[in-house]
Amino acid sequence: MFMVIDVPRRVKRPPGLAARLARALAVSTSLLSVCGPVSGQAALPLDRIRLPPGFAIETVARVPSARAMTWGAEGTLFVGTSGGGVYAVTLPRAGSADAARVRAVATGLRDPSGVAFRNGALYVSAVSRIVRFDDIERRLDTPPQPVVVTDALPRDGHHGRKFIAFGPDGKLYVPVGAPCNICLPETEQYAIITRMDPDGTNREIVARGVRNTVGFDWHPQTKELWFTDNGRDMLGDDLPPCELNRVTKPGQHFGYPFCHGGTIADPEFGGQRACSEFVAPAQNLGPHVAPLGMRFYTGTQFPPAYRNQVFIAEHGSWNRSQKIGYRVTLVRLDGNGKAVSYEPFAEGWLQGQQAWGRPADVSVGPDGALYVSDDSAGAIYRIRYTR
Fold first, then answer.
1. What span, in angstroms and rounded, lies between the C-alpha atoms of 240 and 256?
2. 215 near 235, Cβ under 8 Å?
3. Phi, then psi, of 48 in degrees rounded to 5
4. Would strands 86-90 and 379-385 be described as parallel, antiparallel, or unpaired?
């Protein structure tokens, strides 16, 4: 394991710092297995989770502050966190009674919530930086020193956590959220989704007017980018809705900060531009449900009716008089790729007004099961169809 120390925010970086960081980012420490077997920790109340008939859920690993997930070529589940660490989860073989093995890849990063995998390397987002761990699956016991891909991203902590993923075009997609609840940033470096070459070069804007996306994926057939977006706060319990959006061509604008949910003019900025100027959501979601990770279901373990449908991890509201979210939802698409319904799939992390867990990401595993991360309970769950 390596401990990676982020440069303090107030330090002015001299020219050439990126090159020196690439050589000196990591401080070697002794290998540490931070998470014990699931059986050695207090059981989570999964009997409270409600699923459609025929589905079952189980805890497969405990990972502190677990956020985004990605799969390595050899079946390793990599997990970013909001707690500074990045972890590699080796799951037991099907039918085995062994516990998952969880190893730290790095600690000390600044909010390394985003992870992506390409050509044997693990890419990790750390607010203003993207770093890369080469040949990682062969070196889980002795992780390599990280290489800086870019350190040119904004350093703002507000909406600074970044979900990252490689698209069908081989580009690394990196969002930059708005540095506020509601504002009109002076530059085009905020409220956007960008893409870049794997080495950090040729960065360009893919979508504008995106307040804060913490999850996106590409339609398996059309290859169009879909993403969740968290709606603004302080407009009351029921406004505005959060959103699921669809990018049909590069450079589209999705409304922030002028318009929310496709039809709701912002009380401060709505007078400057009309809602009709922007791309409306593919599906409005619940108000303040905080949709984070989303994936199209591409496996075969679930019944055929779930193929190419959208699963969303709803982290849950924090500023509503009655809490909502804290669940996994399903957006169904018709044959033309149009959203036709929005419904609960897995719920029960919220009991009354008390939440014992908060889904943060969803990911389809090599086995076709749906994996769900929970940064509150510090867990990875597996949902399978059992009949």
1. 12
2. no
3. -90, -10
4. unpaired
Q: Shortest CA distance to 293 belongs to which of 161, 172, 124?
A: 161
pLDDT tens, residue by residue, 121-163: 999 999 999 999 999 999 999 999 999 999 999 999 999 999 9
* DSSP bridge partners of 350: 355
Phi, psi of 46 (to 5 degrees): -70, -15
Query: What number of other Cβ atoms are within 10 A of residue 199's Cβ?
Result: 11
Cβ pair 379, 359 in contact under 8 A = no
User: 305 - beta bridge partners?
Assistant: none
Question: Which domain CATH number covers 337?
Answer: 2.120.10.30
Could you tell me the CA-to-CA distances from 215 to 11, 162, 186, 258, 272 in Å, in that order? 30, 9, 25, 22, 29
Residues of the domain holding 119? 2-385
Distance from C-alpha of 156 to C-alpha of 179, rounded to nearest angstrom: 6
Encode pLDDT of 89-130 as tens digits: 999 876 677 889 999 999 999 999 999 999 999 999 999 999
Question: Minimal CA–CA distance to 177: which of 165, 194, 198?
Answer: 194
CA separation for the pair 365, 371 (Å, rounded): 7
- Mean pLDDT in order along the chain per 10 residues (387 residues): 39 40 34 40 93 97 98 98 96 81 96 98 98 98 97 96 98 98 94 98 98 98 98 96 98 98 98 98 98 98 98 96 98 96 98 97 98 98 95
For 271-299, what is each residue's pLDDT tens digit?
Answer: 999 999 999 999 999 999 999 999 999 99
What are residue 325's phi and psi, to 5 degrees? 95, -135
Q: What CA–CA distance (Å, rounded) separates 87 from 33? A: 10
Tally of domains in the chain: 1
Written as six digits, the tokens of 115 are 């992870």
> How many residues does this entry show for the chain?
387
Nearest to 350 by CA among 311, 383, 377: 377
Residue 218 sits at the vertex; the CA angle it makes with 104 and 55, to the nearest 5 degrees, is 70
Long-range interactions of 93-101: CB distance < 8 A, separation 24+? 94/367, 99/36, 99/37, 99/38, 99/39, 99/40, 100/37, 100/38, 100/60, 100/61, 100/380, 101/33
Largest CA distance in the chain: 61
Do 60 and 354 touch, CB atoms closer than 8 A? no
